[in-house]
Structure formats: structure tokens, C-alpha cells
Design goal:
The protein is an alpha/beta fold. The chain has 16 helices and 18 strands.
Length: 435
């Protein structure tokens, strides 16, 4: 009964102003998401808050609506910090659509664009500045921007904002904003150590947790394909031919993303790449091409894990597992957005058992494993050599021309060795080395 009541809540009941209600209606947004229902009333009151919710659940309007309302009454300025240029662009676009017709002025300060254009936007005295930390500090040092009028500060993807790479920049920015301000942090993953660090810069923040940190959307069907490293490209080709919709592929390095994109194009698919070796203009063109369907496949690094809001991505494929388990949540969150269903497939080698276990602990789910024998191998018997009791039973896998699929119910896997009776000793040794 409680869930039914919550689902019937409208923006007007949250205290949203009439002018913004009209704008939401024009944007065909009528029902607030769970994070919006819980965050907007708290934020309108001026309290600091930490919001944790699954990616793709409307966090931008969860802070954008109350920010616009508070700035209308306090006459100050809002500042939104984000880790990537792409995410900053999307937030700026969303806020402009919501408040632009009401006279809201924004300035987007990101790397890869000319200072001249950004300085012109700052001279128009914007109500909200949306920025990446590095470019904002550049403006601060050039004295082309001042933050003393900041009344509302938002850190989106806050877990990334306090990592070693961004923490010094964020702390420098915090020295330039007034201590008397409202601060809001939002993310899909919020480790306890990050919460403690963030709380040092906030005043009795209200913790709003719509879903536990690291929770993934239920509509995402998640699966792990276990195979030898040398077989990944062959299995990728099978997957690309199996799915007809748009596909987002993640690689661990920018060089790997570039090389894989070339191979996918050679397979006859329409693909493009996005990573930090590209100029901002090239990244923007790649993203636009993926959005409008000119490229069916986008291959990228974790730069695309946050800030990529493309509707209708059918499949997210982790060609390489992420270095951090938290990035897995953000990666697969690019599919199953806006209430739609999605698929997430991750390629893993048998020696990545700990990585899979770490992801399972974070998302509090047991991932479906699909094991593959080597593509050119007939029926074989694999035995487990791992010490854990979860890996002691032997499994018999059979070759299938449709893709060598072998399903096992369970959440992890150990190292494998081929039975010596299954093939000659020389082949057996080579197979062992491939892992």
C-alpha cells in the first residue's frame, strides 16, 4: 500500500513551484522518481544531503529543481562539479531545458573548449556554473571566475570527486566557495570512507539512500562469459552478430579501445571509439554519432561509464573487466534506463575469479556464469584446482557450434586444467599457458 501511495505522488506535493511544474509538464515529466521524491523536499529546505541512487534514476533533476528554486529566492549562484566533460554537458543541457525558458542562465566550464567562449558566458553573470574541476581551477587561477556568491554546491558522481585524482582539485575549489552554503552529493556508489570524507565539508547532511550503494537496476540481465584470453575476439564477433541494437563496449585502456574499434570495423560493423586520447571535438562527434544511430557500436574506456545518457542501448559489454568494482555499476547502468530492459555481458578469464567475487559482493547478486571451452576444442572434461570448497566439483562441458555455451549456476569460478585424456600433452601445456 505504501509503494502505491508513493507512486502516486506528484511534483506539486513536493513543494515544486508553479513555474517549474509547468516546465516539467512541457518536458512530459509528471511523476517524480524515488530519489526525486525523497531529495527535493529536503533540498528545497536548504539542508545538506548525500543522495545514493541507481544510475539513470533522475539525480540531475533531484538537485536541479531545488537548486533553481533556492537561487530564485536567495539571489546567489549555483555550482555543479562533475568528473567528465560528457556528464557536464548533459547536466548543463538538462538544466537549460528546465530553467532556460524561465530566464535561467548557465555557464559550462570544461576542458577542450575555448576559454574565450567560456569567459563570455561568465560575463553574462550565470545563475549556475557547471564545471569539471580542472577547468574551473584554470579559471580561478586566471581570475576569470569568482565563487564567493555560491549558495548551492553540488558534487555529482561524488565518489569519483573524492578519489586521489580529483580530491586535491576539489579541496582547492572548496577553499574558494563560502562556508555558508548548501552542499549536495549524489552518486550511485558511495563507499563509507567517501561518506566520511565528504561529511567533513558538510553540515549535518541528511543521508538519502533510495537503493543501497552499488545496487544495479533489476531490469538489467547480467551475465559473465568465462573464456581464454585469446578467444575473446572470436566470442565478441558472435555476440555482435547476435544483438541487432546499439551496443556499448568497455575496454580497460584507451589503446585497447582504439585497437578493438578497428577490428570491429573490419568485421563489417559500424563502430566508433571514445577515450581520453581523442580531442573533445572528436569525443563529442563520436557520442553524437552513437546517439543518432550512425554508429551502432561505441567502444570506450571508463570515460563513457559516467555521463553517457543514450536511450535504448540494448547491450553493455565489458570486453575487459573494470579495475574497480564500483565502475562495473556505472558501466552497466548505461543500459536499462528510463524503465527499459537491458543486457550486460562481461568477458572474464579463469584467473579473474576474485574480480567477479568483488563485483558480486558490491552488487549483492550472484552473476550468471557462461563458460566456454577453447573454440577449436571438442568435448572436454575440466577439473577445478582451486582450494575453495566452491570449486571442487568437476564439470563436463560439451562443444556447441552456436557459441560453446556452458551454463553453471553459481557466483564464481577457479582456475581450470584440461584432462590429459582429452587431448595430446603438447596441446594441454599450451592451453594452460593461455590462462
Amino acid at each position: 500500500m505504501e509503494n502505491i501511495i508513493e507512486n502516486n505522488v506528484k511534483f506539486a506535493e513536493l513543494g515544486v513551484s508553479a513555474s517549474l511544474l509547468d516546465m516539467l509538464k512541457r518536458l512530459r515529466i509528471e511523476t517524480p522518481t524515488p530519489i526525486q521524491r525523497k531529495s527535493i523536499p529536503v533540498a528545497i529546505s536548504g539542508e545538506d544531503l548525500i543522495g545514493v541512487a541507481q544510475t539513470g534514476t533522475g539525480k540531475t533533476f533531484a538537485f536541479g529543481i531545488p537548486m533553481i528554486m533556492r537561487l530564485a529566492s536567495t539571489k546567489g549562484r549555483g555550482l555543479v562539479l562533475l568528473p567528465t566533460r560528457e556528464l557536464a554537458m548533459q547536466v548543463e543541457d538538462a538544466l537549460r531545458k528546465l530553467g532556460g525558458p524561465l530566464g535561467l542562465k548557465t555557464a559550462l566550464l570544461i576542458g577542450g573548449e575555448s576559454f574565450g567562449r567560456q569567459i563570455s558566458a561568465l560575463k553574462r553573470n550565470p545563475h549556475i556554473i557547471i564545471a569539471t574541476p580542472g577547468r574551473l581551477i584554470d579559471h580561478l587561477r586566471r581570475r576569470t571566475v569568482r565563487l564567493f556568491e555560491t549558495k548551492v554546491l553540488v558534487l555529482d558522481e561524488a565518489d569519483m570527486m573524492f578519489t586521489m585524482g580529483f580530491a586535491p582539485q576539489v579541496k582547492e575549489i572548496l577553499l574558494n566557495v563560502p562556508k555558508e552554503r548548501q552542499t549536495m552529493l549524489f552518486s550511485a556508489t558511495m563507499p563509507l570512507v567517501i561518506v566520511k570524507l565528504a561529511a567533513e565539508h558538510m553540515k549535518l547532511p541528511v543521508n538519502i539512500e533510495v537503493s543501497p550503494s552499488g545496487t544495479t537496476v533489476e531490469a538489467i540481465d547480467q551475465e559473465v562469459y568465462v573464456m581464454g584470453r585469446d578467444d575473446k575476439l572470436n566470442h565478441l564477433e558472435k555476440v555482435l552478430n547476435e544483438y541487432n541494437g546499439s551496443i556499448l563496449i568497455f575496454c580497460r585502456t584507451k589503446f585497447g579501445a582504439k585497437a578493438l574499434t578497428r577490428k570491429i570495423i573490419d568485421m563489417g560493423h559500424r563502430a566508433t571509439e571514445i577515450h581520453s586520447n581523442l580531442s573533445f571535438k572528436q569525443r563529442k562527434e563520436a557520442l553524437e554519432g552513437f546517439k543518432n544511430g550512425r554508429h551502432r557500436i561505441l567502444v570506450g574506456t571508463d570515460i563513457a561509464a559516467r555521463g553517457l545518457d543514450v536511450n535504448g542501448i540494448e547491450l553493455v559489454l565489458n570486453y575487459d573487466l573494470p579495475d574497480n568494482s564500483e565502475d562495473y555499476v556505472h558501466r552497466i547502468g548505461r543500459t536499462a534506463r528510463a524503465g527499459k530492459k537491458g543486457k550486460a555481458i562481461s568477458f572474464a578469464t579463469p584467473n579473474q575469479r576474485r574480480d567477479i567475487l568483488s563485483i558480486e559482493r558490491l552488487i549483492k547478486k550472484t552473476l550468471t556464469l557462461t563458460k566456454f571451452a577453447e573454440l577449436d576444442q571438442p568435448k572436454s572434461v575440466f577439473t577445478r584446482n582451486g582450494r575453495s570448497s566452491r570449486f571442487r566439483k568437476a564439470n563436463v562441458f560439451s562443444y556447441k557450434s552456436s557459441g560453446n555455451k556452458f551454463r553453471r549456476r553459481g557466483s564464481s569460478f577457479g582456475s581450470f586444467s584440461m584432462s590429459a585424456t582429452a587431448r595430446p600433452r603438447r596441446q594441454f601445456s599450451r592451453q594452460r599457458r593461455s590462462y
